[in-house]
Structure formats: C-alpha cells, structure tokens
Structure to design on (1019 residues):
C-alpha cells in the first residue's frame, strides 16, 4: 500500500513537475521579485534601502509621477471604454448577424478573422504610414472631396489616442465577433424556434432570449478587454512612440512603465523602484479583473 | 493515426533536439575559441547604438587590430531607441560589453553612479587635451571624474536648399526678420518653406536649441539659470519661445503629424526649403541624395549685427566596463579612440565633428564651417543642464512645445510648466 | 438554424435593416482588404510614385525590392528564427502542458488544487511588467542572446492556458478506458500516451493554434533577449528595419508585405482550424 502511494507520487511528480518548474521559475519568481524590487529605493541601477510602500506613495501623490500615472491610467480607461463600446458592440452585432446565416456568412466569418492574426507591430507600422499627413487616409479623404476632414491623425492631442484605438479595433473586432457567433450558435435551437412560433420580434428575441444565454461570453470578452486595455504597449510604441506623444496624450501605463523602468534618451535615468511599483500595479489590476470575472461567471452559470 | 502522431512528436523532438544541440555546440565552440584566443588574443566586446556606422567602425577596428595584433575587437550595434534598455539590462545583469558608446551628461550619470563605468583619467591621459565642453559631457556631476572618451560634438542650426535660394535669388539671412522674409518668399513661390513638424517632440526641442538662444541671451541666460539667478519664466526666455510659434505658418500642412523621418525625406527630396536640425544630419542627407545641394546658417539674430549663437552639446562617449577582464587592452583601444586616426575617420567617414583635439578638417568644408559657426556657442540648454533628474527639462519642454505648436498652450504657459517641473527637484530653484 | 423561418417573416423594415447590416459587413471587408492591397501595390512602386499616385497601380512593377528585403535585409533569416522559436516552444507547451493536465485531472491527491492554482495564476498576468527580474534571471542562467531564453519564456506563458483547457478536457474522459488499459498492464506513461492523448487530439489542435499565433507575433521578449541580428524574429526584425529605412516608403511597404502576406496565405488554407483554435480558449 505504502509502495503504491510512493509510486503514484512519483508518477504525479513526473507529469506535473516539468511544467510547474517552468511556470514557477519564469512567471511566479519574476512576479515576486518585481514586488520585492518595488519596496526598495534604487540609486540608478543599484538596489538601495528598504523603503516599504514609499514608491507607491510617490506614484499616487508625488510630482510628476502622480500626474503622469493618472494621465496614463486615464488613457487606459479610454481604451477600455471605447473598446467595450465600439469594438464589442460591433462584435455582438456581427456575431449575431453571422449566426442568423445571412447570405455570405461563411465568407464574412473567414475574412473578419484575418487581421486578428497579424502582429500588432506590423499593423501599427502599416497604419502609422497610412495615418501620416501625407498618407493614404488623408489622400482618400481628399479624393472623396472631404479634404476639410484631413487631419494629423497621430499628431493631434484630441484624436491621436482615438486613431490608435480605431486601428486596434480594425485589427481585433473579428475576435469578439467570432466568440459571440460561437456563443449564439450554442443557444439551443428549440428555444429560438419556440420564440419564433410565438411571434416574438427580432429585437425582443435578442434581448430576452439570446443575450441572457450568451452572458458568459460577454463576461469573458469584457475581462479580456480590461486586460488588453491595461496592457496596451506595442500599439502606442509603433504609432506614436514611447513618450506617448503628442504632449503625453497617447501615454499608457505600459509605455510609462517602460520609460520609467528603463529610462529613455530624453526622459533620463531609469527609476527601477518606481517602475517596479507600476508593474505591480498593472499586475494587481489585472489580477482583480480576472478574479471578478471568474466569480461573476460562476454565479451567472448557477443562475442559468 | 497513432503512428502519425508519434511521427509528428518525433519530428518535433528532433527539431528541438537539433536546436538545443546546435545551441550547445555554439556555446562550447565559442568558449573554446575564447580560451584559445586568450592564449594568443584578447577579445574586447564593443557596443554602439549606430547600426548605420557599422562599416565605418569596421575600418577603424581593422586599423587598430593591425597595430595591436594581440587584441581582437568584436563590434555589436544596437538600434538607437533600444540601446538604453539593452545596455542597462546587460550591465545590471552583471555582464555587458568591455567598451561601449555611452550617452553624455545625465545619460552618463546613470551608469557612472551605478559603478558600471571606469574612471578614465589615468587609463587615457589624452583626455586632458580635450576641450572643457566635451569633457563636461563625459564627467559625472557628482564626483567630477571623467568616465568616457568624448567622440563627437553636435551643433544645431538651419539647413537650406542652395538650389532654391539661387532660383529665388535669396540671401542667407543674418537676422530673424530676414529669415522670416525668406520663408515668406518661398511660400509665395509655392515651395514648402520649412520641413519641420511636431509629431516627434525631440525635433521641437532641437528647434528651440537652434532658434531660441539668440533671443534668450545665450550664455548669459544659461549661466544664470543654472545657478538659479533667474528661471525659465524670465521674459527673455518666454520671448524666445514665442518666436518659435512664429514659424508655424511656414511648417507643412498638418505639421503636428509630421514626424522626424517625414521632415528628413521632404528636405532630401527637395520638397522643402529649410530644415532646422543638427550637424548629425549632413552625412545622411548626402548619402540619401548625393545631388542635393545644401548649406546651413546659424540661428538668426534678434538684431542686425548681433552675433549668431548656436547650441552645441557633446554627443556621447566611449566608456569602459570596470568588470572587464581585459582592462589593459580596453585602455589601448580607448587611447586609440581618443587619437587622430579616429578623429579623421569621424570627420571624413561619418561627417561628424570629432571631439578629438586638433584634427585636420581640410578635407571636409562642412566640418570646417561647423567649427567656424561654433565661435559663438552656447550649451544646448535642457540636455546639458537639466537632464539629470525626473522630470527632465527635455521631457517637459518637448511636451509643452507640442502643446504650444498645436495651439493649446501659450508661450507663458510653456515656460510655466517647464519651470514648475524642474523646480520640483532642482535645488537652485528652490531657494 | 432558424434562418428560413425568419426570411418568410421578413418585413420591409427588417429587410432594410438586414441590407444595412450587410452593407456594414461589406464595408468592413473592404476596410480589411483595401489597406492590404494598397500595401502590396505600394511595395511595387517607387517612393515618389507612392506619394504622387497613392491609389494607382504601379506603372512599372518593381519586384526587386522583395529580393532586397528577403535576402539582403535578412527577412529570410527572421522567418527561420520565428519558425524555430515558435515550433520548439509549441512542442514543449503541448508536451509539458498535456503532462501537467494529466497529472492534475487523472489523479486524486491533496495538493492537486494548489498545483492547478499555481498554473492558473499565470494565465492572464502580463509578464512584461516583470521584465527586470526576468532579465536578471535569464542573464544568470547564461541565456542572453540565445533562442532558448525566449523559448522558455513562451513556454511559461503558454502553459497556464494550455493546462486550463486540456485539464478540463481530460476530466471529461471516462475512467473506464483508463482502467481497461491498466488491467492490460499499461503503466501511467502508457495510459497518458496511448489512451488519453489520442482522445485529447482535437483539444491539442486548438491549444496549438491558440498559443502559436501570439508566440509568432510576440515582439517584446525577443526584443529584449535576442540582440544579435542573426537571431531576430520577424516582428523585431521589422521594427529595426523600420528604424533603418524610415524614409524609403517603397522598401517599408515591401517589408510589411513580407511580414504580413505569409500569415494571410497560411490562413486562407487553414482558416477553419485558426477560427476554432482562437475562439476555443475564450468560450470554455
């Protein structure tokens, strides 16, 4: 009996340990270390004294960190809101329409997914060229006689972030569309048919029957949107640069973290303590978002 | 099915095994090469942020290696924008190159104060002959020691297209009003007068460096502001910022979207008549368009007859890693980099103003002219004086100038923001 | 599904709405294809032509750029590197991930939930934010500037979601199969290999695509850990290429075409698997 237990233990270890070792070493350890680093003061690249939560206090109350951090966080919030509002709404609409087998739905489904596969870097650079003052977008507007609407899409404070978000929606809207399509397809057909036979309108059908049943997908997509919005980096890096130019209007926590942790030519010296603290904040926000999602999906599943 | 799967996994593992084996071999190969090299040759790893200059440095290295048969220099060039990340990570990770290009001023301070740079006065005696301005860029403000061999200085001024000037019969302007008149003449002739835009904040700081000193009173103001005797809300400084705004009508359509590379290509392709930039551009201009006839003039003066000041700064240095196993050899290489051969190569190959004292400029009229306009030079204000702490003067100025150029901030507000930001840490402002 | 019912009941308002939505979808299709099409035709033009006639077809198509970018600018090598890194990472993501899922889902023991949670803790956390300690770790392991560094990181990043999907799948496999195999004298490895893995194959296909696309496209980790030009992957190579040739639009569009088109062609052949793979993780 004892012997089989040992054997079983060995087998379990054999199966689980390789993966666990990699995850511990390359995810959990660095995570823990950045938390550790964030509690120290840093003299340039050298770890100094233990300062507790001082770095966090600075981020939330000291000049210029507070201003930069809140500005960046505000932009992340903008990313979240607009992505939810525009991208995910279009996603639900497209997903629902595709599930109703409109003519050409198989074609649309395949095409919508194409940009999802492209790397953010390539997409960012491509649209970076198109959105220049002399680029394709303004040329198209002029061609259509809408020259008055030509803009410095990535150079004007009011619209730079919006332009980058629009590019990201272009790249990514196929993803929620297909997730919602799969979710609507999974709704039992007899539910829908019964509703049809009762003469329920399309609008009521969607809100009363389909939407409640796809709420788990809605939650998943919302959480992915929160996480994605907190981690915006490459999009800004490729289109307006690390400094979140112009005048910090496109800065996000991701670019702020990078600049703070590594320094840059113009922004000066790296501040590893503050940088690590920003990293920890990114983690915590992501973590909270994931937990909330898991809990809320669980309770919803029970309700259904 | 099962056989197919086994085959697939087998192929996968085979690929993996070959990759790892190759990796392993690679390493063992390198280490045996290293051990055998240690008997005959010392290997010195050398990093730069100039992928564009790899070939030029190869020439330099070839000369050095022929003079020093026992030393082998291995050059690695990283992309400019990622150099800091990679270097600081490598050095803080406990390794890194033996010799590396390092930034001047505040960028040097980081590495020097972290102990990642060797003080060089005793290793490289030639340093005492370098100009005080270039040594300043290689010294730590904390301990005053020199941590690098300066390689080049940069000067900011106004490039113009000579063919356009000839065609429109324009004269090189000496004053601001003449300059504006020239810009106006080009605009009237349907030529884009100025290539500059505002998408990349640092090009606006360059604009400030080229134009503003002649309005804020160059060195008088610089010395006073560094000592805290005046500040950035000084009316002279505000006025100089306001002058930058007067250039807006001559910038390209939607200039807030015009990036640095857009500026370069419009000047290179002769679509714009002026380009306000630095001496570091000339080599690239001629390389991209050998037919382009261009020249430059220093920032226009406020009044006729007043001297035309240019902002100058040390571009960077070559520094030694204190943990290098081959310090003697590194020092030899650094002394070579501080010598005439290197100086000549910088001038003739890179078209850069070498910091090496007493180099021969006869083969490069451009460099000779840069040295000539440098007779009235003033430090590039934010880089030289205010890039040591967060938020740096550069970051503040770049963001605020973007605000002003977009019509969001007035010149007063720009200066207010710069002043407040720097005052948050700069002791002389806090008295 | 219920389509036919709906069309019979179609009214004018609804038909207009459907037309409207259909138009919206067609517009999006155009918005996807035209920029890609323009990218390709621009790569065949000279830079001057791109500016003067951004919409026109190239007057004298120049294919020479493609050779320059693929051979001289090293995109061929970048592709090879991306391929090696992605393939090796995926082999181990699948191997270690399925083994761990087996160890979690097919045994009952006390630490099981803990092990599962340890794996899951990494599922959505942005590893980018821990780049400094990660860097020091890679440095200490002597893996700087070696492909193994990013392979290990991608492996770590891929495992959580793989364990999440596969262990859920494996839990659903009836015990009887396993008992039967054991009676025939199979040990645990053979059960995993001969019984569970063949049944799990469809889920493995999903996991592969779900992980391979982000690994292929990842920019940040190769940027930081692979410094030699001969090791760069496509996104990083593209980034430094953009830095070096920023004023030559013709060449830039060629680089973009070379980075984007192979993925597009591969997708057109395998779209079914791609769609299933990418949506699998989210639905479950």
């Amino acid at each position: 009996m004892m012997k089989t237990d040992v054997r079983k233990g060995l087998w379990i270890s054999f199966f689980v340990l390789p993966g666990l070792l990699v995850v511990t070493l390359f995810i959990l350890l660095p995570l823990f270390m950045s938390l550790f680093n964030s509690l120290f003061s840093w003299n340039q690249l050298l770890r100094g004294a233990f300062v507790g939560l001082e770095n966090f206090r600075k981020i939330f109350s000291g000049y210029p960190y507070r201003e930069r951090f809140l500005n960046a966080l505000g932009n992340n919030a903008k990313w979240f809101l607009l992505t939810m509002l525009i991208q995910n709404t279009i996603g639900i609409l497209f997903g629902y329409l595709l599930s109703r087998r409109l003519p050409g739905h198989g074609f649309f489904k395949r095409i919508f997914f194409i940009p999802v596969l492209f790397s953010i870097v390539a997409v960012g650079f491509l649209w970076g060229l198109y959105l220049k003052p002399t680029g394709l977008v303004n040329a198209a507007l002029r061609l259509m006689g809408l020259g008055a609407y030509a803009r410095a899409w990535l150079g004007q404070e009011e619209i730079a972030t919006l332009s980058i978000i629009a590019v990201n929606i272009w790249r990514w809207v196929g993803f929620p569309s297909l997730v919602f399509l799969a979710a609507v397809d999974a709704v039992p057909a007899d539910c829908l048919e019964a509703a049809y036979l009762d003469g329920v309108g399309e609008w009521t059908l969607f809100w009363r029957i389909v939407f409640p049943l796809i709420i788990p997908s809605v939650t998943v997509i919302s959480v992915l949107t929160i996480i994605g919005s907190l981690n915006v980096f490459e999009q800004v890096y490729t289109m307006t640069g690390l400094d979140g130019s112009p005048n910090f209007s496109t800065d996000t926590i991701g670019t702020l973290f990078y600049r703070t942790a590594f320094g840059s030519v113009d922004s000066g010296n790296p501040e590893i303590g503050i940088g690590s603290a920003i990293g920890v904040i990114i983690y915590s926000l992501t973590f909270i978002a994931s937990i909330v999602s898991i809990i809320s999906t669980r309770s919803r599943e029970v309700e259904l | 099915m099962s056989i197919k799967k086994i085959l697939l996994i087998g192929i996968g593992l085979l690929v993996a095994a070959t990759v790892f084996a190759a990796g392993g071999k690679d390493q063992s190969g390198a280490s045996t090469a290293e051990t055998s090299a240690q008997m005959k040759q010392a290997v010195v790893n050398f990093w730069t942020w100039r992928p564009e200059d790899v070939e030029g440095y190869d020439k330099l290295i070839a000369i050095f290696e022929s003079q020093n048969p026992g030393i082998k220099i291995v050059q690695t060039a990283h992309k400019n924008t990622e150099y800091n990340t990679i270097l600081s990570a490598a050095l803080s990770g406990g390794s890194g190159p033996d010799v590396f290009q390092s930034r001047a001023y505040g960028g040097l301070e980081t590495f020097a104060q972290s102990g990642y740079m060797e003080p060089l006065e005793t290793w490289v005696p030639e340093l005492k002959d370098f100009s005080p301005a270039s040594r300043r860029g290689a010294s730590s403000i904390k301990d005053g020691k020199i941590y690098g061999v300066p390689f080049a200085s940069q000067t900011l001024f106004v490039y113009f297209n000579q063919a356009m000037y000839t065609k429109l019969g324009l004269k090189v302007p000496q004053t601001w009003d003449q300059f504006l008149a020239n810009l106006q003449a080009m605009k009237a002739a349907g030529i884009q007068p100025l290539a500059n835009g505002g998408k990349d904040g640092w090009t606006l700081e360059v604009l400030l460096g080229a134009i503003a000193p002649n309005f804020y009173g160059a060195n008088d103001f610089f010395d006073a502001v560094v000592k805290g005797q005046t500040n950035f809300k000084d009316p002279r400084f505000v006025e100089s910022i306001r002058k930058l705004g007067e250039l807006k009508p001559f910038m390209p359509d939607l200039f807030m979207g015009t990036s640095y590379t857009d500026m370069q290509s419009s000047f290179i392709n002769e679509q714009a008549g002026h380009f306000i930039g630095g001496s570091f551009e000339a080599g690239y201009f001629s390389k991209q368009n050998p037919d382009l006839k261009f020249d430059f003039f220093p920032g226009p003066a406020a009044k006729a007859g007043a001297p035309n000041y240019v902002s100058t700064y040390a571009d960077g240095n070559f520094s030694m890693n204190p943990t290098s196993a081959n310090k003697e050899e590194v020092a030899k290489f650094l002394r070579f980099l501080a010598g005439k051969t290197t100086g000549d190569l910088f001038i003739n190959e890179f078209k850069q103003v070498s910091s090496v004292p007493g180099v021969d400029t006869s083969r490069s009229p451009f460099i000779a002219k840069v040295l000539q306009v440098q007779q009235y030079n003033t430090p590039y204000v934010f880089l030289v004086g205010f890039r040591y702490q967060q938020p740096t003067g550069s970051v503040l100025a770049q963001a605020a100038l973007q605000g002003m150029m977009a019509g969001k901030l007035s010149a007063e507000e720009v200066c207010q923001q710069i002043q407040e930001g720097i005052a948050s840490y700069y002791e002389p402002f806090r008295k | 599904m219920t389509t036919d019912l709906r069309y019979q009941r179609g009214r004018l308002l609804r038909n207009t709405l459907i037309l409207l939505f259909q138009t919206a979808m067609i517009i999006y299709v155009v918005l996807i294809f035209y920029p890609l099409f323009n990218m390709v035709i621009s790569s065949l033009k000279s830079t001057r032509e791109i500016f003067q006639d951004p919409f026109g077809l190239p007057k004298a198509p120049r294919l020479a750029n493609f050779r320059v970018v693929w051979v001289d600018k090293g995109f061929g090598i970048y592709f090879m590197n991306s391929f090696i890194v992605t393939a090796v990472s995926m082999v181990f993501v699948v191997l270690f991930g399925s083994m761990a899922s087996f160890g979690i889902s097919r045994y009952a023991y006390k630490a099981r939930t803990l092990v599962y949670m340890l794996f899951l803790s990494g599922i959505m956390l942005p590893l980018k934010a821990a780049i400094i300690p990660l860097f020091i770790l890679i440095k200490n392991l002597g893996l700087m500037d070696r492909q193994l560094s990013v392979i290990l990181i991608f492996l770590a990043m891929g495992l959580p979601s793989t364990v999440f999907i596969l262990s859920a799948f494996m839990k659903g496999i009836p015990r009887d199969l396993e008992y039967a195999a054991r009676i025939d004298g199979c040990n645990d490895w053979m059960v995993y290999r001969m019984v569970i893995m063949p049944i799990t194959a469809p889920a493995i296909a999903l996991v592969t695509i779900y992980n391979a696309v982000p690994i292929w496209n990842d920019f940040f980790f190769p940027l930081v850990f692979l410094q030699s030009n001969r090791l760069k992957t496509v996104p990083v190579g593209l980034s430094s290429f953009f830095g070096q040739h920023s004023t030559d639009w013709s060449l830039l569009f060629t680089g973009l075409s070379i980075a984007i088109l192979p993925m597009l062609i591969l997708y057109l052949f395998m779209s079914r698997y791609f769609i299933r793979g990418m949506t699998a993780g989210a639905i479950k």
Notes: The CA atoms of residues 268 and 288 of chain B lie 7 Å apart. Chain B touches chain A through 51 residues (CB under 8 Å).
